[in-house]
Design a protein that fits this description.
Blueprint (H helix, E strand, L loop, with lengths): L7 H31 L14 E2 L5 H18 L8 H20 L5 H8 L8 H4 L3 H6 L10 H4 L4 H11 L5 H12 L2 H13 L1 H12 L12 H18 L6 H19 L8 H11 L5 H18 L4 H15 L6 H16 L2 H7 L7 H16 L7 H4 L4 H4 L18 H17 E2 L3
Antiparallel strand pairs: 1-2
């Protein structure tokens, strides 16, 4: 399980080159964002490339987050993770990722876990509208869109109903609720690791673990219901991979494919952009020559959407209502040209330096289907003029897949490179800095 040293000098050189390339692009992007602010462009924020404001803060997370990062990097550099069996790797990845996200949030103290929940622009304020009649809420969701919170207007009713369900079983303390949402969102890590293992092998997945655990976008994982979409999407891809394994045929394959579709359909009730992850499933089935599985996954994806429609919520009508609200509430006040460029800067910062290595080696990895789905979602969002601030949240379901090629060989079918510890370290430092200086509305 130890990492091969044969290509280490060449790999280290490429890693430094990737780091330098990312730094140049990130600095240029930040300069562009600063120029937009100075020119008083229509951005809707003074803290471009993000939404929020800048204020230096020192808190518990200011010490805890660097300690978590240092511990993870030390274990990876010493080869300690190689001694764990696969369940141990997944458990470590989940625990380390959860602690990393929580420690970053705690820079703001306990409010880091609660401020998003208490904001009048977020979903929790709509829970009281559900009352004792969730079916009635579904039936009138689109027609009552003007009375919803800002967050609910741009999403299907899934997030509000999820919070309503937790409230009904007694989970109403904001700190407990914030921790629970973060804990569920962190499940994305072991799921993505499983997908990488299934597509490019266990050794590659082990080396990808630090990249995934210490990703800068963990800043927005804490208390984000977009993190639930990421979990559902990742679980769908894992199910699709199980369905398309060489030795899995007949009803077991159909069952896994149906489950994959069901999860995508459920995710679509939380986010209108979630179906893009279905493209990754299509590419997986294409690469593995299992075209019929598309039919089963397609049927599965329709079931939750049609079920919601039978209860009164038409997904297509909800999408139109969200687009109409966006066109009147956001589009006139945020420049599409500036934000199209600035959103790319957000992508660079949220994914960290690993995105540079991943973009360079995308042709060298069997995990390319994951990048196609996630990449298509990002490109469409920008091309359609929908990326006008807040993509650090909206693109959370796609970020983990965009860096999977960071651990791809330098040449097709070549030797696996070591974990890109330099890139991971730079990303972790970036996350600590952003969290220390940026006060987000979430």
């Amino acid at each position: 399980m130890s990492e091969p040293p044969t290509d280490r000098p060449w790999t280290a050189h490429r890693e430094r080159t990737d780091a330098l390339r990312w730094v140049v692009l990130a600095v240029a992007g930040l300069a562009l964002a600063a120029l937009a602010v100075q020119l008083d462009a229509r951005l809707g924020t003074a803290s471009a490339p993000f939404l929020g404001r800048y204020k230096i803060r020192i808190g518990v997370g200011s010490i805890l987050a660097p300690a978590v990062a240092a511990g993870t990097l030390w274990l990876a550099s010493r080869g300690r993770l190689a001694r764990l069996d696969w369940p141990g790797i997944q458990l470590f990845g989940y625990a380390a990722g959860l602690i990393w996200a929580i420690s970053l949030a705690l820079v703001d103290g306990w409010s880091g876990l609660t401020k998003a929940l208490g904001s009048p622009e977020e979903y929790l304020g709509d829970v009281r509208q559900v009352g004792d009649d969730p079916v009635g809420y579904l039936r009138h969701f689109t027609s009552d869109a003007a009375y919803h919170s800002v967050a609910s207007r741009g999403h299907p009713p899934g997030p509000v109903l999820f919070l309503w369900g937790l409230d009904r079983i007694g989970v109403d303390n904001h700190i407990v609720l914030g921790f629970l949402i973060t804990a569920v969102s962190a499940l994305t890590i072991p799921l993505v690791l499983s997908a990488v293992r299934d597509s490019v092998g266990e050794e590659a997945a082990r080396r990808y673990l630090p990249v995934l655990v210490l990703a800068p976008y963990a800043i927005w994982v804490a208390v984000s219901l977009d993190g639930l979409v990421a979990v559902l999407g990742a679980a769908a891809i894992v199910a699709g991979l199980r369905a398309s394994r060489r030795r899995v045929r007949g009803w077991p394959a159909s069952g896994w494919a149906l489950l994959a579709g069901l999860l995508i359909g459920l995710a679509a009730l939380f986010s209108y952009s979630a179906p893009w992850l279905g493209l990754s499933l299509v590419c997986v089935y294409f690469a593995r020559r299992r075209a019929f599985l598309n039919v089963m996954s397609g049927v599965g994806a329709l079931l939750p959407v049609l079920g919601a429609q039978l209860l009164g919520f038409a997904w297509a009508d909800g999408l139109v209502a969200a687009e109409t609200d966006y066109a009147s509430r956001v589009a006139p006040y945020r420049s599409v040209l500036w934000w199209s460029a600035i959103s790319v800067v957000v992508l660079l910062l949220a994914t960290g330096p690993a995105i540079a290595a991943s973009a360079r080696k995308i042709r060298n990895t069997a995990a390319w289907p994951f990048l196609v789905g996630a990449g298509a979602a990002v490109v469409f969002s920008i091309a359609a003029g929908l990326a006008r601030g807040g993509v650090e949240h909206a693109w959370l379901p796609f970020f983990p897949w965009l860096t999977v090629a960071a651990i791809a060989p330098e040449r097709p079918a070549g030797e696996l490179p070591p974990t890109p510890l330099l890139l991971v370290t730079m990303g972790a430092v970036l996350a600590v800095v952003i969290e220390a200086v940026l006060v987000t509305p979430w």
